[in-house]
Design goal:
Length: 395
């Protein structure tokens, strides 16, 4: 069914990176969600009235809120698919993250309200009437929500969408919550136990967890989470594949919404290369990155003295000093400035986050070791932090 809907309503679905295609995927998810959840709301509301169950009534309003979430998703994808304009030169892709955040907040607020009602039902329990109609509606709802989970999960993977991932998780928790309500009704009918309020509270906890997870998934890219390590490796490998590029560092992936990003990096090149030749190579790399990953790329070139034996040897000695401090440390942008009385060794030091030593302690230790190695040398160290876990291809 999912693949059929994609074929019918998503043109060029094989190219999910394109903003227009992403918009069609999002609109499809939103439209299907609105229709299915409104039908489930009507059915469960009827079942709740017939049975007198607060758990079923609460579950029905959960479906109504889901219909609202689907509407937010639809609008979010429509807005995020708008073309760049003077006020938003990088497009509107981050609106999709805001849509996911709003969905999570709505889910969270509903969970709180449901919890209140369930506590009241626990304090003042009322008998729930079992009926085949109510049971059949609940079973149908479980199957529908399991399909919605699969549907939105498939779409979220196709376009790497936090908003659709949030909707798929919500659908799964809805199915679980409805299954608990259904099982509770059977137990209550068989043994005469008043479990309705407790079941409603359990449903509220399910929904609360889903809301928190959805908010976390939406907030991470808004706040600036680590880029995908696999994408970063692919970019590094592509840049290093060009003749003349001997190292890559300070790779940053700027996220402007799913499928929209800008890359900036430093490419180390031999200082002996002719400037025009280096510029030609760098320009070609930027074009290739744009073609392969659909991104804008800005590359800064760092000249390195790869042919000067004295500087190469000095860099190796400094690298050994750094590795003695900790094997995870690396250096880049190594330069040597020779003065009248001393030689200055200038380089950047890549230090992992939450390192066991403070930055100033590391720098002081390295500067002391460099001075002990050669009294005429002085180290000037700039501390860098990695932008993704495996970063550190510098020398």
């Amino acid at each position: 069914m999912t693949n059929l809907l994609i074929r019918l309503f998503v043109k060029h679905a094989e190219d999910p990176v394109t903003p227009a295609v992403r918009e069609r995927f999002g609109v499809l998810s939103g439209a299907v969600g609105i229709v299915v959840n409104l039908l489930l709301f009507a059915g469960k509301y009827l079942a709740g009235i017939l049975s007198g169950s607060i758990a079923i009534l609460a579950d029905s309003f959960n479906n109504l809120s889901d219909a609202g979430s689907s509407a937010v998703t639809l609008v979010g994808f429509y807005v995020s698919g708008k073309k760049p304009d003077p006020a938003h030169p990088f497009g509107h892709g981050r609106v999709e993250y805001l849509a996911g955040l709003l969905i999570g907040i709505v889910i969270l607020l509903f969970a709180v309200e449901l919890g209140k009602g369930s506590v009241e039902k626990i304090i003042s329990p009322e008998r729930v009437e079992w009926s085949l109609t109510a049971g059949g509606i609940l079973l149908g709802s479980i199957l529908a929500k399991l399909w919605m989970f699969s549907f939105n999960r498939t779409l979220s993977k196709r376009i790497s969408s936090a908003a659709l991932k949030a909707l798929s998780g919500d659908s799964l928790s809805d199915a679980a919550a409805t299954a608990v309500v259904f099982a509770g009704m059977l137990v209550s009918e068989r043994f005469g136990l008043q479990l309705d309020g407790y079941l409603g509270l359990l449903v509220a906890l399910f929904i609360l967890y889903t809301g928190i997870s959805s908010i976390r998934d939406a907030l991470n890219p808004i706040l600036g989470s680590q880029p995908d390590a696999r994408l970063a490796r692919q970019i590094e490998e592509l840049v290093l594949s060009y003749e003349g590029v001997v190292g890559v560092h300070d790779l940053i992936i700027h996220d402007y919404g799913p499928g929209r990003f800008m890359v900036s990096l430093h490419a180390e090149v031999p200082e002996s290369m002719e400037t025009r030749a280096i510029h030609t190579i760098i320009s070609q790399i930027e074009l290739t990155l744009a073609e392969r990953f659909g991104c804008e790329a800005v590359i800064h070139m760092d000249p390195m003295a790869v042919d000067d034996h004295r500087i190469v040897l000095m860099r190796e000695k400094v690298l050994n000093i750094v590795k003695d401090v900790d094997p995870s440390l690396t250096i880049h942008d190594f330069r040597v400035v020779t003065g009248d009385t001393e030689t200055e060794l200038i380089f950047d030091l890549l230090v992992p986050y939450q390192f066991h030593l403070r930055d100033d302690q590391i720098v002081s230790s390295i500067q002391k070791a460099v001075r002990e190695l050669d009294g005429s040398c002085r180290a000037t160290v700039k501390v860098d932090k990695p932008y993704f876990p495996e970063q550190g291809t510098g020398q």
